[in-house]
Specification:
By secondary structure, the protein is of the alpha+beta class. Helices cover 30% and strands 30% of the residues. The protein has a 4-stranded antiparallel sheet with strand order 1-4-2-3, with helices on one face.
Length: 94
Amino acid sequence: MMERIQLDPSQLVDTVQQLVHEGNVRRLVIKQGDHTLVEIPLTVGVVGAVFAPTLAAVGAIAALISDCSIEIERGEPAPAPPALSDESGKPLAS
């Protein structure tokens, strides 16, 4: 599923940080008009120092562009684990 957000370049870094922390984002595409400026693939393990250089690049891009949008590819939510029950079918106490 792709979602597109139109935003001001001054909001770009904060928005990218917020999307990364959501955890269900697979890929971000930063565009100016119809031109793709950067595609950022995200994985579950992307955090902290690993993401810092990418975030610095996003900040540099934000300083150079006049209008931008972010396309967000979200992953499917994980299915809920099945409820545990005993042999008679009664739920186990947690």
